């Protein structure tokens, strides 16, 4: 079974849906648009322009259709995040693990987003991106610096991936099964 099939089976088992909606949020330059493009086309391009507001893309693989909301990460667009995260199947929070200066801001924005009552209980996947860079945080350091252990009202997963190498969900090294621990 291919890696894309593994992801789809995992999503099916988690949500029991053939159609799902995911909101991708995170600070600017975290790699959200690159992730959407990797999922949709299987390719990666260095030539990305910042998302202004939001983009929506529907991707169908087999029997599963995923609507992906790619939300701008600049400060002026962060107030929109809640609106586009309401009622989604899961929130995918993308963090540039190599930009250590932005991690405290990413933590603050993440925890602010999770205080929104309308988002209560929505599963959360944290993707530490750009781990191919030497300055990237390790998974335990990212979990610690983002304060993920303190999130108790939803299922939370933290994965590391590098879009420069391949789409994170398609990497053989990635464990696609979420657990309650971050080890």
Automatic annotation (TrEMBL):
PROSITE patterns: ARF, RAB. Mg(2+) binds at residues 33, 51. GO terms for cellular component: late endosome membrane; lysosomal membrane; spindle. SUPFAM superfamilies: P-loop containing nucleoside triphosphate hydrolases. It is found in: Cytoplasm, Cytoskeleton, Spindle; Late endosome membrane; Lysosome membrane. GO terms for biological process: chromosome segregation; defense response to virus; protein transport. GTP binds at residues 26-33, 73, 129-132. It holds the Pfam family Arf. CDD domains: Arl10_like. Keywords: Cell cycle, Cell division, Chromosome partition, Endosome, GTP-binding, Lysosome, Magnesium, Metal-binding, Mitosis, Nucleotide-binding. Belongs to the small GTPase superfamily. Arf family. This is Uncharacterized protein.
């Amino acid at each position: 079974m291919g890696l894309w099939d593994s992801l789809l089976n995992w999503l099916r088992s988690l949500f029991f849906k053939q159609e799902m909606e995911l909101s991708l949020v995170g600070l600017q330059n975290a790699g959200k648009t690159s992730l959407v493009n990797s999922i949709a086309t299987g390719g990666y391009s260095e030539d990305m322009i910042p998302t202004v507001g939001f983009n929506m893309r529907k991707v169908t693989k087999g029997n599963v259709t995923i609507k992906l909301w790619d939300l701008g990460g600049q400060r002026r667009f962060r107030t929109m995040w809640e609106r586009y995260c309401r009622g989604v199947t899961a929130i995918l929070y993308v963090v540039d693990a190599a930009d250590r200066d932005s991690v405290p801001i990413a933590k603050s924005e993440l925890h602010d987003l999770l205080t929104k009552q309308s988002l209560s209980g929505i599963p959360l996947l944290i993707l530490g991106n750009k781990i191919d860079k030497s300055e990237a945080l390790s998974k335990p350091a990212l979990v610690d610096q983002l304060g993920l252990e303190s999130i108790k009202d939803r299922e939370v997963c933290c994965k590391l991936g590098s879009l420069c190498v391949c789409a994170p969900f398609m990497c053989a090294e990635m464990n696609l099964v979420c657990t309650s621990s971050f080890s």
